[in-house]
Design brief:
It is a single chain. The protein has about 575 residues and is of the alpha/beta class. The protein has three domains: about 130 residues, Rossmann fold; about 220 residues, 3-Layer(aba) Sandwich (Rossmann fold); about 180 residues, 3-Layer(aba) Sandwich (Rossmann fold), CATH 3.40.50. The strands form five sheets. The chain has a six-stranded parallel sheet with strand order 7-6-9-10-12-13. Strand 14, helix 15 and strand 15 form a beta-alpha-beta unit. The N and C termini lie far apart (about 80 Å). The relative contact order is 0.10.
């Protein structure tokens, strides 16, 4: 009798591609998922899979100290890049690669931790099948490198492994191995002429303008700037969400853009790119260890990093070229940068053009010492350890809601409903916190609410950010209840809620909850390293022990709960009036 294959899989698209190429895998293999996304796909397809072990639910969890260590190394790396670029006369003070390098390092470190846990807990008597991508990725799409890291560690530990290679054509269509090989054609004679003749040269990078709140901030700012004629929309490397209007829609190859430079600039630029790439490689190997040297895919990944360095330098030079023709009236970006914000900030600041940032959801991670105006809803962003300078100048945006009229909500009775808001639950949750914290905290919350006779509702992140089946499976949540919480408009859910309990990352939904008269308690087991919307004037983060104690108190005493609601709302109202009038 043939031994049943155990398939170790990281990515959900590898499951689909593997079954497409080898249909027998759907029936004759046992799938062991090493990521939340992969488990979600197995559940959707009703594939035979191993129960995700407790040890894997903590995979990739990074402590605050580990994050600080990586941040500090990357900050030193970025400072050296800035010195190199200054030596070429770039004259800028913004980080270009910090966010991308951080993501790569956490992903690779997560794979190493996963591999170590697998070595400790899997049986060597069972043959392991690995599905491997035949291709190289970049920041968002690491290709087969994550799988290769795990396979290398398993093989050196004496496990029997077999590899099935999957061609890119069978993987998800959004895979973009050449994401940094094309660039907007800043040097086009047609673009240059239109730029020079236009009445307004406001440049918008639409990378993060997905959601209503982002678009609202943009429209408010455009109106404030008095722009009535033309904006220029940048085409980001990914997140191709170009709105209607004039823009840099024509793209050229990075090589063609490079050839626009003088021979002396080409030589100097390539020498700098080679130096930056070597420095990046050195830091990554210092953090990840010598395992990476043995992996061919890692060397391909370094070449992708080199391509990104070149792409960002050319982006800077292209925008600087246009600013030399005519000054940019304003640069507007989201913090979801698509790999271009740092270089755009540098070009704008060199030309003394005003810079604006629309912070998506709950973080501001653009590290720059140059002047930048942050458009936000009357909350003061907290400083982040990754910033070179301060958070700069917040400009507060009026909410759509008339907060004075919200007082009417207090006279209407509300059901004893508690909404648990899973801010930190998304596909890469394990990189931040780990599921064990969520599950333990949730278990305690359910017990408290049950004792007090309170109705519970759950709100996970909507859209494709949440592998719903997997989280309901792992956290033992009622799927229909979770589905209802996602489908119901957030404002409707909150208007019928007394208390919102948020777990981990703060998000903009917390401010909406306060505006609609809910009490909000945020529980987290880690300090937040990014610059968050957690304004200490109103909202603070409680440890699990403190938060659970407060929840028990307010749910057992209606007067305490109403007092918390009223106090938070009064502070919010006073803060809004103060900041919008100053």
């Amino acid at each position: 009798m043939t031994t049943r294959k155990t398939v170790l899989v990281i990515f959900p698209d590898e499951i689909t591609a593997g079954i497409a190429k080898f249909p027998w895998l759907a029936k004759e293999a046992n799938w062991l998922c090493l990521s939340i996304d992969a488990l979600d796909r197995c559940l959707q397809l009703q594939l035979p899979h191993a129960q995700m072990p407790t040890w894997l639910q903590a995979t990739g969890t990074f402590s605050a100290d580990e994050h600080r260590y990586v941040y500090s190394k990357l900050q030193c790396l970025e400072e050296s890049f800035i010195e190199q670029r200054n030596s070429m006369g770039f004259n800028e003070h913004a980080y270009w690669n910090h966010q991308h390098n951080l993501t790569q390092l956490t992903l690779f470190s997560s794979a190493q931790k996963t591999a170590a846990l697998a070595v400790e807990n899997l049986s060597k008597s069972v043959p392991l099948l690995m599905l491997q991508r035949v291709g190289v990725g970049d920041y968002h799409f690491p290709g087969g490198l994550l799988t290769a890291i795990i396979q290398d560690k398993l093989q050196r530990a004496g496990f029997q492994t077999e590899t099935i290679y999957l061609p890119l054509s069978q993987l998800i269509s959004t895979y973009a191995p050449t994401v940094y090989s094309q660039i907007p054609n800043y040097w086009s004679a047609d673009v240059s002429q239109k730029w020079q003749e236009s009445d307004s040269n406001v440049v918008i990078s639409p990378s993060g303008l997905f959601y209503k709140s982002d678009q609202k901030k943009l429209l408010h700012l455009i109106k404030k700037l008095g722009v009535t004629t033309k904006t220029w929309m940048l085409s980001p490397p990914f997140w191709n969400v170009i709105p209607d209007g004039t823009g840099f829609k024509d793209r050229v190859s990075v090589q063609s853009a490079y050839e626009n430079l003088s021979p002396s600039m080409q030589q100097a630029l390539m020498a700098m790119v080679e130096g930056m790439t070597a420095s990046t490689d050195e830091v990554m190997q210092e953090i990840l260890g010598d395992q990476m040297e043995r992996l061919d895919l890692y060397q391909h990944q370094i070449q992708q990093i080199k391509q990104r360095h070149l792409f960002q330098c050319l982006t800077f030079l292209g925008m600087a070229h246009l600013c030399s023709i005519k000054k940019m009236d304003a640069l507007i970006v989201s913090n979801l940068d698509g790999g271009i914000n740092g270089s755009l900030f540098s070009a704008a600041q060199d030309a003394s053009s005003p810079c604006y940032m629309l912070p998506h959801s709950h973080v501001i991670n653009q590290a720059s010492e140059g002047p930048c105006t942050v458009i936000t809803e009357y909350w003061q962003p907290q400083p982040s350890m990754s910033h070179r300078g301060a958070v700069n100048i917040p400009v507060y945006l009026p909410t759509e809601l008339n907060l004075d009229s919200t007082m009417d909500l207090w006279s209407a009775p509300r059901p004893q409903k508690v909404v648990v808001l899973f801010n930190g639950i998304h596909r890469w949750t394990a990189l931040n916190t780990g599921l064990s914290f969520f599950k333990k905290t949730l278990t305690d919350i359910v017990e408290i609410c049950s004792n007090e006779g309170c109705e519970l509702a759950y709100r996970l992140k909507p859209g494709d950010q949440t592998p719903l089946d997997a989280f309901c499976h792992l956290l033992e949540l009622d799927r229909e209840l979770c589905q209802k919480g996602i489908q119901e408009p957030l404002d409707v859910l909150l208007r019928n809620t007394e208390l919102v309990i948020a777990i981990d990352d703060p998000s903009s939904a917390l401010w909406e909850a306060l505006e609609l008269g809910c009490a909000v308690i945020l529980i987290a087991n880690r300090p937040f390293i990014s610059s968050t919307l957690l304004d200490g004037n109103i909202l603070e983060s409680f440890s699990p022990e403190q938060g659970l104690e407060l929840i028990a108190q307010v749910l057992s005493d209606k007067n305490q709960l109403d007092q918390l609601r009223l106090t938070q709302f009064a502070k919010l109202l006073a803060l809004r009036e103060s900041r919008l009038t100053n």
